């Protein structure tokens, strides 16, 4: 049964007159079931007139839809007339006699305590054997329209497209204010009122009515054109606002990352000087954690926007989901141990082959782990399970905790952006309510589904994701990411830092010099190009948002100059969109790092071999 048709039929009122021109018996039944169910719900008597076969099919379908047909028959709410003589005097169609019987049926329904009558009849069955059926049909339908106005009856006339003549269908369309078309109920543009059909109006009155119809039609078209224009204008405004929002988020991320980068560099300098007591070290640790937390919030904010807009480009490959989950979750074991949270792993013994982006799927699982950790206190448990789905076509990953749980009214919205379970003033769990929205977006981009379950506050929660299995996938036997062998001795590089923020430049220089490198500074793009030609650096760390010549232009110029083309160019910037990374690569940068840069990552990058001259 179509839900949309059921909702539309439920809005019908007494006095409505519809026609259904159906192609098949199934289409007829699909309309009659919600039609009668709505009548039962409204306390009306439902009257069926037609073939016995159609009646039995209807009763069966009503039973399948949850209606107790025998009970409705017993209380008189459902009346089926399948013998022509029981409805048609002498077994023949007579418009006047039929109208009298309809009036009697409505009155009897009211006398029996029903709120009204909901009737339907198969007009082909009613008209069988009737001479001049078209003229008599027009007369009957016109009188029916007059009767229904102000009555307590709703009428649905059924016409078989195959069994009815073209003239009968044409007359039906002229005499019914409403029509059922598939899953829609619509106003009938071909409808003519009873006095027009019965010839009660003069030719001039008929012309006036037709002209009025044309004017109403044109008025409706004008209104539609106006609404379409307004929608178009609103759509354009929304698109402009959306672009402005993206630009704002990008600029906001840049402006927030820059000071975080400076703070992170300064903390590393303090740590590397190894001065101060344990109190100072604890203070540095705490500050570093807060810098990392703020950087993750910025990344989550941008990531959610990109995922929900479908702007993530997946780099898909053959994967073993079991091994991917194992590797991702194992990274949390030590931290969970320190937090006093027990971790349980229940992994499939067989490889679960999927096709997906390793980084993005690992990110989705990490977000589920982060969410579970956030709402699970010390002494709690987190269990991660990976199994084939019940249908055998998908793999299921579940992350279950026995933590804070989720309120029933919040459960349907947990995957929406900015949805938050913690509305208290202390905001002890923190976060922006973005991580689960990212999970949903990434999993759906892989053709999967997500779900959340909880028995309520204090009873924990379970999040699951389903991904389609790919039996043809052939994942690598070993993990892709293999730790590189570090050189036995630390390499000392000549490094040029191009950064217009004095604090960021100074702290980066101090960090690099304490790491054993030779450093030169430049505070603009043009100065950076000149310094590179004089200093001949092995590595250039360059900001993108520079005054005058920006970072992209600096990279392009350094690549064009043979004296600087071999330098390893690394963008160190607050801009981190895919578009920014693409432009960096096109300009000639070897690597794109967003502020605050992970010190361990930067140290590892600087230990890599310099760029080959012939590259």
CATH 2nd-level architecture of the largest domain:
3-Layer(aba) Sandwich
Strand content: 15-25%
CATH-defined fold name of the largest domain: Rossmann fold
Model regions low in confidence, pLDDT < 50 over at least 5 residues: 423-430, 477-488
- Domain count, please report it: 3
Arrangement of strands in the largest sheet: 3-2-4-5-1-6-7
Count of DSSP strands = 19
Number of helices: 20
Structural class: alpha/beta
Helix share, percent: 40-55%
Distance between the amino and carboxyl termini: 66 Å
- Rounded mean pLDDT is 84
CATH class of the largest domain: Alpha Beta
Largest sheet: 7 strands, mixed
Rounded to the nearest angstrom, the radius of gyration is 37 Å
Specify the overall morphology.
elongated
Fourth-level CATH superfamily of the largest domain: Response regulator
Q: What can you tell me about this protein's structure?
A:
With 615 residues, the protein is α/β, with parallel strands linked by helices. It has 3 domains: 3-200, Rossmann fold; 225-311 and 486-615, Response regulator (Rossmann fold, 3-Layer(aba) Sandwich); 316-468, 2-Layer Sandwich (Heat Shock Protein 90), CATH 3.30.565. It has helices at residues 3-10, 25-41, 52-64, 69-74, 95-111, 123-127, 133-148, 166-175, 194-197, 203-273, 278-308, 321-330, 333-339, 358-374, 435-445, 502-514, 525-535, 551-560, 578-587, 599-607, and strands at 17-22, 45-49, 78-81, 117-122, 153-160, 178-181, 184-187, 316-320, 342-346, 353-357, 381-388, 394-401, 449-453, 461-468, 494-498, 518-522, 539-542, 568-573, 591-594. Strands 3-2-4-5-1-6-7 form a 7-stranded mixed beta sheet, with helices on both faces. A 5-stranded mixed beta sheet has the order 9-11-12-14-13. β6 and β7 (184-187) form a beta hairpin. α7 packs parallel to α8, α12 (321-330) crosses α14 (358-374) and α17 (525-535) runs parallel beside α18 (551-560). The protein is elongated and about 110 Å long. The protein starts with a helix and ends in an 8-residue tail after the last helix. Mean pLDDT is 84; it is low at 423-430 and 477-488.
């Amino acid at each position: 049964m179509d839900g949309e048709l059921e909702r539309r039929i439920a809005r019908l009122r007494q006095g409505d007159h519809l026609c259904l021109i159906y192609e098949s018996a199934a289409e007829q039944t699909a309309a009659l079931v919600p039609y009668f169910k709505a009548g039962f719900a409204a306390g009306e008597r439902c009257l069926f007139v037609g073939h016995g076969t159609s009646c039995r099919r209807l009763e069966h379908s009503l039973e399948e839809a949850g209606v107790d047909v025998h009970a409705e028959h017993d209380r008189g709410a459902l009346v089926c007339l399948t013998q022509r003589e029981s409805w048609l005097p002498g077994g023949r169609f007579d418009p006047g006699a039929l109208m009298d019987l309809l009036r009697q049926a409505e009155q009897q329904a009211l006398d029996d305590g029903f709120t009204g009558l909901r009737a339907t009849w198969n007009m082909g069955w009613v008209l069988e054997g009737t001479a001049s059926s078209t003229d008599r049909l027009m007369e009957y339908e016109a009188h029916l329209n007059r009767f229904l106005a102000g009555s307590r009856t709703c009428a649905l006339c059924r016409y078989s497209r195959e069994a009815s003549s073209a003239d009968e269908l044409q007359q039906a369309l002229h005499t019914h204010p409403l029509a059922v078309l598939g899953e829609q109920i619509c106003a009938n543009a071909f409808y003519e009122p009873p006095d027009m059909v019965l010839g009660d109006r003069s030719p001039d009155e008929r012309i006036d009515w037709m002209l009025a119809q044309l004017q109403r039609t044109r008025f409706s078209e004008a209104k539609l054109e106006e609404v379409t224009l307004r929608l178009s204008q609103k759509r354009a405004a929304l698109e402009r606002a959306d672009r402005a929002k993206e630009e704002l988020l990008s600029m906001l991320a840049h402006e927030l990352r820059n000071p975080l980068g400076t703070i992170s560099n300064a903390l590393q300098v303090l740590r590397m000087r190894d001065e101060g007591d344990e109190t100072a070290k604890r203070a540095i640790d705490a500050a570093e954690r807060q810098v990392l937390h703020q950087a993750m919030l910025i990344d989550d904010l941008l990531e959610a926007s990109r995922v929900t807009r479908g702007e993530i480009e997946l780099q898909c490959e053959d994967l073993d989901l079991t091994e991917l989950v194992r590797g991702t979750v194992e990274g949390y074991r030590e931290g969970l141990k320190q937090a006093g949270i027990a971790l349980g792993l229940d992994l499939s013994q067989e490889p679960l082959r999927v096709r997906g982006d390793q980084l993005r799927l690992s990110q989705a699982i990490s977000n589920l782990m982060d969410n579970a950790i956030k709402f699970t206190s010390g002494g709690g448990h987190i269990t991660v399970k990976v199994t084939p789905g019940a249908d055998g076509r998908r793999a299921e990953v579940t992350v279950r905790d026995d933590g804070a749980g989720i309120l029933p009214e919040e459960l349907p919205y947990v995957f929406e952006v900015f949805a938050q379970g913690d509305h208290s003033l202390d905001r002890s769990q923190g976060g922006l309510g973005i991580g689960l929205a990212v999970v949903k977006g990434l999993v759906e981009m892989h053709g999967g589904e997500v779900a959340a379950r909880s028995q309520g506050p204090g009873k924990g929660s379970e999040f699951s994701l389903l991904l389609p299995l790919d039996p043809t996938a052939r994942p690598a036997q070993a993990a892709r990411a293999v730790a590189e062998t570090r050189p036995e001795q630390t390499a000392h590089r000549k490094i040029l830092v191009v950064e217009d923020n004095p604090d960021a430049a100074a702290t980066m220089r101090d960090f690099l010099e304490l790491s054993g490198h030779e450093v030169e500074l430049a505070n603009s793009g043009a100065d950076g190009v000149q310094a590179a030609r004089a200093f001949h650096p092995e590595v250039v760390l360059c900001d993108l948002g520079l005054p005058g010549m920006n970072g992209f232009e600096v990279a392009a110029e350094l690549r064009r100059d043979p004296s600087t083309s071999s330098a390893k160019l690394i963008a160190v910037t607050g801009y981190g969109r895919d578009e920014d990374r693409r432009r960096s690569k096109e300009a000639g940068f070897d690597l794109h790092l967003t502020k605050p840069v992970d010190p361990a990552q930067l140290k590892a990058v600087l230990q890599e071999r310099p760029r080959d001259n012939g590259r």
